[in-house]
Structure formats: structure tokens, C-alpha cells
Amino acid sequence: MQKISTLTRNTLMFPLALVLFEFSVYIANDMIQPGMLTVTREFGASAAWMASAMTAFLVGGAVFQWLFGPLSDRIGRRPVMLGGTVFFILSCLATLFSQSIESFIVLRVLQGIGLCFISSVGYAVVQEAFEEKAAIRVTALMANVALIAPLIGPVAGAFMIEILPWRMVFVLIAAIATVSLVGLVRHMPETVKQRKDKLPLVQIWHDYRAVVGNRHFLKAAMCMPLLAIPLIGWIAMSPEILVADGHLSVIEYGYWQIPVFGCLIAGNLVLARQVDRWRLGSSVRIALYPIALGVLIMLFGAAFLDKPYFLVAAISVIAFGEGLSAAVMIRFTLTESTVSKATVAATMGMINMTLYGVGIELYKVFYQHAGMMGFALFSLAVITLYWHLSRSVVARAMLARVTGHEEKEDGPLI
User: Fold this and answer.
1) Which of 1, 78, 142, 162 is least surrounded by CB atoms within 10 angstroms?
2) Is residue 235 part of a domain?
3) Quick one: which of 37, 49, 30 has its CA closest to 247?
4) What is the mean pLDDT of residues 58-71?
């Protein structure tokens, strides 16, 4: 199929339907966060389960990434994406029957599987259907819509839990995903030819080995989760930091999330506006300045202030830098291998979710043992590693585009 270079109302209908599904999956995490104290109290569980529930959600996002990408190569992107949307809707409605913290955690894993379809199938279709700069612009715009979830999710969840049982949050999410399903059925293109032969597990193994054996891909794939881990850690730990330890109300907790995700959206908007004017990759280098500033604010606040509000300012500045970088880093990572985009996207998704889950658990340990200074020091370590890796990734990607070698396996660039 001919790749799309111009964004019109018609060509944007599929990305809008996809991002509505992405929104519903993300809000399944963000909207329940202010209610996690209510959930743990109802089930008689400790507060430690609050962060673990998000880890479980991310585990679900990693567990089947390896399968759905290659499966969509075989039977088509549409059937896998549509089936995944239906599965997510049912897993949300199943929360109505949860009677223990253990069953709730299992359902969080099942709901997290929805993440697999976004990264290994949905975003692969975007990269296949749109030309490079159009794909980056679409990815950045989609990120803005998807980021409304963490922006309004905590506030909406807080108000909803004040007046309705917490399980109704998941009924609302299922309803949103159902609207997305209708849009995907009508507008999602098929970008691969269906094949009737069996799914070759040996070939899948060789494809994944080729992807993870590419050291340049691994460097690029690690950059995105490393950049996002401070924000992910904040999302997971902020109910404990602000509500349990900071003694804020659930509504106040929701309000304190607004500047964080507002800055993240602002960064994405700047990228979408400037992508045609900046040399591709420049935004990643520019973003290092606000990211470094955010880490310094975090360290200073942890050393001299006893209230957690400085973390909001620090994470907000880091989030702005993440918004400037994310869409470009996704594109750089996906073009580091000539293996099927679905397989590459699935590998990237597994790396993302695994590092997110490990990051959350490490943030929990550092915060429990060293408080806000522990949170700040772990953030410094993560961002330092990101800075080290991103320098070579961006330099290689920018050189590849100058020389016309955009997709290379491990080895010399030219």
C-alpha cells in the first residue's frame, strides 16, 4: 500500500480510534490510582499493594508482546487488534466480580495485556501506513491525546470514587473501549497480507534473536523506558507519597497530577509543531536541559525541603523533556532493525514494560529505605544512564538519515 504523507480528516480516523483505545488502557491504570487506598482497605490488604497493582498491570503489558506482533504478521493486523480490544473490554467488566486483592491483581495483569496490542500491533500499523515525518507527527499527536488519561484520570477517578463504588471506574473504561472498537472496525487499515500457513515458532525465535542481537537496537530500546521511569515511578508512588504520607485528600492528589502531565503534553505539542523545522533528533538533545534541571530540583528539594511538593515541580520539568523526545526515540528504535516492524515493536514493548516494572519496584525500595532522597538518587542514576545511551543513539540515527541508511542490522552503519 502507498504510504500516507498528508494528514486529513479521513487519514486521521484510524489514529483517533487507536488512540481512544490507548486512552482507555492507560486510564485503566491512572483512573484507579486515587482509589487504591479504597481498594486495599476493602480487601483488607496493606498499602504496599498500591504500587504492586501498577507493577501487575505492566507485567500484563510485557507477557504476550512476543506473540501478538508475529501473529499479526501471519493473520493480519486487524484481527489481532480487534480481538485484543474485545479482550480488554471483558477484562475490565470482570472487575465487577473481584472479591479479593489476589483476584484484583490477576485482573490487573489481564487488563495490562491491552498494552501489548497498542505497541506491537497498533503503532506498527502507524509506522507502516505513514511516511516518516507524518508518522512522527501522528505519534506525537496521538501521545497528546493518550496523555489526557494521566492528566484527567486521577482527578476524574478521585471525583468518581467519592460518589460511586470503585468498580464503576472499570465499567466506564469498558464503555470508552467499546467506542474505540467501533472506530477500529470501520477505519483500521490492513498493512500486511494474510498468510494461511502455520505460525512458525522457530522463525519467530530467529526473528527475536536477530532483533535482540542488534546492539544498536538494544541501546535505542532502553532509552525510552529509562527516560520514562521517573514519571512511571511517580505515577506508582504518588498515592503513597501524597496521600498516605503527605496526608492530602484524594481530590488534592488528583490536582497535583495536572502540572506533571500538562508539561508532558506541552513537550509533545512543541515537538509536533517543530518537527518540520528541526533536524530530526535535535529535540532529543534539547530535551536534556529540562531533564537535567528536573533532576537538580529533585536533589535540592530532597536535601533541604521536608514537603513532597518539590517532586511535582521536578517531575513536571522532566516530563516536558520526555514529551520532546519520546516520539522521535520511538521512531529511531523502530528503524534500527530490518526485521518486521511488528516484531521490533513487540520487542521494544517487552523491554519497556519490563524496565517499567523493575523501576517501580526499585523506587518502592529506595523510597521505603531513604524517603524522598532515595527517590531522587534513583532518578539521578536512571537519567544518567539514559543520557549516556541516548547520545550515541541520536548521533547514529542522524548520521543514518544523512547517508540514506535508515535501517541497519548490527554492524557498520555504512
Assistant:
1) 1
2) yes
3) 37
4) 84
Q: Is the pLDDT of residue 372 over 80?
A: yes
Higher pLDDT, 9 or 28: 28
Whole-structure pTM value: 0.74
Question: Using an 8 Å Cβ cutoff, are 154 and 34 in contact?
Answer: yes
* 7: in domain: no
Asked if residue 414 is part of any domain, the answer here is no
Work out the average pLDDT over 29-54: 84
Domain holding 312: CATH number? 1.20.1250.20
Helix axes 65-75 and 77-93, enclosed angle (nearest 10): 140
User: What is the model's pLDDT at position 402?
Assistant: 64
Domain that holds residue 39: 13-190+199-403
Instruction: Report the Cα 126 to chain-centroid distance in Å.
Output: 16
Contacts of 182 (CB under 8 A, 6+ apart): 17
Residue 4: inside a domain, yes or no? no
pLDDT average, residue stretch 287-309: 93
Number of domains the chain contains: 1
pLDDT tens, 215-248? 999 999 999 899 999 998 998 888 888 887 888 8
